[in-house]
Recover the amino acids of this structure.
């Protein structure tokens, strides 16, 4: 990239621009090639298979039988599934706002001149590092109504804690709490990386203009974090709608269906009742819901302006 | 001053809440069978015993750790290379079908994994890759949509004018990526590396489905089998997860100095 090279290339740059652009386009396909192969073979193809399966009655041992839209008619009348969808939505609403706000708050705390930043950062991310099965076991101990750590701690301040995981009113919030515990520090990492990318000059300029800390947050920090916020909320929502591990290991969908999220119902339908065709139909429903929610987010974030720093 | 105290208090509370459940893992891993029933989960067993750790380390567990380490290393290497190229193309290059393809990638993240596992397994069976390293690695080694999404957002957050100077100097897309953009992407690459290492290390459902032999057994599957036996060997399980957790904390501490390296500090205005 010396000036010599620049001189040598100048005549070429004066040539027809169309050829250059097309050349670069060809290169772009080369760049995405390997990942595209993976996405098509291991994600899209299974997705198509699921869609096709939703039109079949297939109970694994018998041959699949084409039934058209029968599975979807069954879905429309299946109150249990709509209940599961409702449970899933409540779960998402319990997790996402708290988990996002807490993560951003932690990131902003750590983005100051703090002694032992790395130490705290490591500790906050630890909840995300362990095997989900083990975590669920540990939390079952913590939620134990009699000798569990949570109710013992509540007893110290004179509160009688509920029977968390066996109480239909508390089981879902308890599962949501574990998710918040697990993901807050992890999301903090993204916000922290985003915050570090905000040029200090902008804060200085805002301070010179007499902006209050609140104004700096709403007018400088948040708009500049827009790409990060988009990534965090989109991936978190997708993850929350698909929650499975914690429900599977902590409550098994109970008590009385109060934690039976949709993905758990799909698993039950496929691997307990071996009703693969209908499980595929339920997956299509879950996919449709997630798709709509994500599109809504794309529109929401697309409308908001981002600063161009160039 | 009061503000500083509140700041550190908030950080300390957050740190305690994050770590407390792990104290239970450590305490339980150091308990004998008798202490397990006689003490509450959150009180230490006295005297602590290293028997569980020794038992896990003497058996086949170290081999599963090696298997997991190999899987993690290969998946992370593949992810870093292929994801970076794809994300760069999606974020900074123009080509036909770019946006459609990108949203197709994002759409694949929305498919519930519990059910795509079945078709994926059927595909692997057709390809004769069940219970092989190829079958274990193939779906994730070419870069995941999640990783590509993450890196694309980082690439997009870099100022638009960066490539211009290099392009005027006649640099091609590859040179621009390697010489101009990647040095600025160290925080993002560090983040991606950590995410990939830890999620590979903890991956459970796919290894459980696709592998059955000892040669490809990973630690999560090994730990889960301790639960499936007669009763639950809590203390062995916790010892196993403690052994599994230590390398992850080490990896995190190693990589994290790369994560938060301010873009401003690297000379970008």
């Amino acid at each position: 990239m010396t000036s010599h090279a620049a001189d040598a290339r100048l005549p070429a740059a004066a040539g027809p621009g169309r050829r250059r652009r097309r050349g670069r386009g060809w290169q772009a396909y080369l760049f995405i090639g390997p990942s595209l192969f993976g996405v098509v073979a291991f994600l899209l193809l299974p997705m198509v298979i699921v869609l096709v399966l939703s039109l079949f009655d297939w109970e694994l041992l018998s041959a699949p039988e084409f039934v058209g839209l029968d599975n979807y008619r069954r879905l429309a009348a299946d109150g249990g599934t709509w209940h599961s969808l409702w449970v899933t939505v409540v779960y998402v609403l319990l997790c996402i706002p708290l988990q996002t706000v807490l993560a951003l708050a932690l990131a902003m705390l750590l983005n100051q001149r703090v002694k032992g930043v790395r130490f705290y950062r490591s500790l906050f991310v630890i909840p995300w590092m362990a095997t989900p099965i083990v975590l669920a076991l540990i939390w079952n101990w913590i939620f134990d109504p009699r000798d569990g750590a949570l109710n013992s701690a509540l007893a110290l301040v004179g509160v009688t804690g509920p029977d968390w995981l066996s109480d239909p009113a508390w089981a879902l919030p308890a599962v949501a709490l574990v998710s918040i515990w697990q993901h807050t520090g992890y999301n903090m990492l993204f916000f922290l990386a985003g915050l570090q990318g905000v040029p200090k000059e902008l804060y200085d300029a805002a301070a010179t203009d007499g902006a209050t800390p609140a104004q700096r947050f709403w007018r400088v920090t948040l708009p500049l974090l827009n790409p990060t916020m988009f990534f965090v909320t989109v991936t978190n929502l997708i993850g929350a709608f698909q929650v499975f591990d914690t429900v599977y290991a902590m409550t098994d969908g109970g008590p009385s269906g109060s934690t039976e999220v949709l993905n758990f119902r799909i698993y039950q339908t496929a691997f307990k009742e071996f009703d693969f065709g209908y499980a595929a139909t339920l997956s299509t429903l879950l996919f449709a819901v997630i798709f709509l929610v994500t599109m809504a987010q794309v529109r929401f974030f697309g409308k908001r302006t981002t600063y161009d720093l160039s | 001053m009061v503000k500083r105290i509140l700041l550190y208090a908030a950080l300390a509370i957050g740190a305690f809440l994050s770590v407390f459940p792990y104290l239970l893992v450590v305490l339980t891993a150091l308990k004998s069978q008798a202490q397990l029933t006689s003490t509450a989960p959150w009180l230490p067993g006295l005297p602590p015993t290293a028997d569980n750790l020794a038992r896990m380390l003497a058996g086949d567990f170290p081999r599963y750790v090696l298997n997991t380490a190999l899987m993690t290393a290969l998946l992370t290497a593949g992810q870093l290379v292929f994801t970076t190229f794809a994300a760069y193309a999606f974020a900074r290059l123009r080509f036909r079908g770019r946006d459609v393809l990108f949203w197709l990638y994002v759409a694949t993240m929305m498919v519930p994994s519990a059910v795509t596992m079945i078709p994926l397994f059927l595909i692997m069976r057709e390809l004769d890759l069940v219970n092989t390293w190829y079958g274990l690695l193939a779906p994730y080694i070419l870069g995941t949509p999640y990783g590509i999404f993450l890196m694309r957002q980082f690439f997009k957050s870099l100022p638009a004018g960066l490539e211009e100077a290099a392009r005027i100097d006649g640099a091609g897309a590859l040179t621009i990526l390697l010489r101009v953009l990647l040095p600025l992407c160290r925080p993002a690459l560090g983040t991606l590396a950590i995410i990939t290492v830890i999620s590979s290390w903890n991956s459970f459902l796919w290894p459980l489905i696709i592998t059955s032999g000892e040669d490809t057994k990973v630690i999560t599957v090994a730990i889960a089998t301790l639960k499936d036996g007669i009763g639950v060997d809590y203390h062995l399980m916790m010892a196993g997860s403690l052994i599994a957790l230590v390398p992850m904390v080490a990896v995190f501490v190693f990589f994290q100095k790369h994560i938060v390296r301010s873009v401003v500090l690297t000379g970008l205005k």
Remarks:
- The first strand of chain A starts at residue 56 and ends at 57.
- Residues 1-23 of chain A have pLDDT under 50 and may be disordered.
